[in-house]
Amino acid sequence: MAAIEILDLEKSYLVGFWRKRQKLALRPLRLTIEEGEVFGFLGPNGAGKTTTLKLLMGLVFPTAGTARILGMDMGDPRVKSQIGFLPEQPYFYDHLSARELLNYYGQLSGVPAKGRSARVEQMLARVGLSDSAGVQLRKFSKGMLQRVGLAQAILHDPKLVFLDEPMSGLDPMGRREVRDLIQQLRHDGKTVFFSTHILSDAEALCDRVGVIHQGELRGVGAVAELTSGTQGKVEIIFCAQKVPAGLTGLGAEARISGDMVNAVLPEEQQDAALEVLRRERLKLISLTPVRSSLEEYYIQKLRPAEDQKEGRKEESRKGVGV
Amino acid sequence: MNSGGTNARIGYIAFNTFREAVRDRVLYNLIAFALLLSGAAILVGEISIDIERLVVVNLGLTAVSLFGVVIAIFIGIGLVSKEIDKRTLYTVLSRPVCRWEFVVGKFLGLTGTLVVNTLLMAIGVFLALLYVAHRFEMMDVWVLVALYFIVLQFLIVCALALFFSSFSTPLMAAVFTFALFVVGSLAEDLRGFARITQGVGGWLATGIAYLVPNFSALNVISQVAHGDAVSGRLILYDSAYALLYSAMAVSGAVLIFQRRNLK
């Protein structure tokens, strides 16, 4: 069963003094996320990621379209007890301590009184806040608030977790811990939908990614497929202090660093290049195909529409879904 | 969502609102109130011209009313709008909490705060009474009724502040609420004016007189200060009126908030 089915969800706002000008925040969005999947929603700031999440959370109302979450209409009150949400740069009641806040959210989420305290302590330990559990949140740093945000999102053991920029404001250690937490959620069979503009996080965590830009979904693809394709080029690294003339003739782009040369050349020239190295008696270090990266896919999707037509042709040749 | 769950959620939200008010030192107003009342009681005790009780009841109850109205307006206008601005609302509404439950919970939390505040102030008033009169009398029971009416006023003021803040800026909401409190305190005069005015003006004055909250009917301070009784009929009528008026204002706030996009 699909965990999330977004069916032409659209949002526009009326702006200007007389509220007559329409500003499109999200063009009709159609997207399906399967259960147990970790899905990354990528896009630059202002692309429409947060708007999509707010629509799914019922914080803003769609201009058109709808969505089904865990098989129920997104407006169905039962949905809310099965989802967790971490907003971007979360703010919490700063008169409460982390423990009190989680207890309050546990009450609102319907976590049974029996065992609620234990669950709160477990979550505090999971995000590394056991030592600061009694401190009022007004004394917390941004990174600590982000941890509280993660704890409250998974407190009631939801089936589906929405995270809006979960790594935002975290130091390298904190980011690693969040990555581990998302991996753990995947391991527990949860569906995770998270937005980010940090591609390395998406590449490390996601089964699939979607790229959104200017309110429009530009493409969706499986990370494994996007990063497994070769670009028809190979990278050869060998020991030398200058680039052999024979290699330049094969169309190689070479770079010298110290006693090593790094050369990238068309795949079909691979044998000829190895022959040149043998002839020149140069020591080969490695030969690897040049793989596509998520960054290339992302940048390609962010290009203007005309450039994208070329990109789509290229993708259909490689068999990547859009 | 079942009604038991609904009641519990409203209760949790109300308690959190009360806790927030207490921790944000709202009850510190009691210190100013205590100082004011102690000073007045000592001063009146010195003068001693047989109007000590009248002065203490008048001053004490007026202070209870004004302190409470100021709290009701300034917290009431931020009850929901502050949560939207600070985005604390996002993690609440992404849980199984209906928007109306949130608004009602916040309203009850603030009125609960005001009830506790009024109870503590009431203790102060009675202590001042004891200080100047050296004993309690039967007619002091009516002071309790006056305090109850003051709480009913707070219900309406809170509801109005909540209603105005649901579609205007906090500053404008404060101005609207305070203006209605002032006009509502003169509601009986307005009704009298409407009765003697003819034509369209009369219709208009009657409409306004019955639309604004009738705070003057809820003000029996002068009456009880003179030791006069308050009729059971008035207590019943005022209770029903205040509950209905505040319920309507909260419902208006809910209706607006239900459709609001939380940007």
Key traits:
heterodimer; A: 322 residues; Rossmann fold; Alpha-Beta Plaits; 2 domains; 6-stranded mixed β-sheet; 14 strands; 34% helix; globular; B: 263 residues; mainly alpha; 12 helices; 78% helix
Write structural notes for this entry.
The complex is a heterodimer of chains A (322) and B (263). Chain A has 322 residues and is α/β, with parallel strands linked by helices. Chain A has two domains: 2-226, P-loop containing nucleotide triphosphate hydrolases (Rossmann fold, 3-Layer(aba) Sandwich); 231-291, 2-Layer Sandwich (Alpha-Beta Plaits). In chain A, 34% of the residues lie in helices and 31% in strands. Chain A contains eleven helices and 14 strands. Chain A has a six-stranded mixed sheet, with helices on both faces. In chain A, strands 2-1-4-5 form a four-stranded antiparallel sheet, covered by helices on one side. In chain A, strands 12-13-11-14 form a four-stranded antiparallel sheet, with helices on one face. In chain A, helix 2 packs across helix 3 (116-126). The longest helix of chain A has 16 residues, at 172-187. Chain A is globular. Chain B has 263 residues and is mainly alpha-helical. Chain B has one domain. Chain B has twelve helices and no strands. The interface between A and B is medium-sized, with 31 and 28 residues.
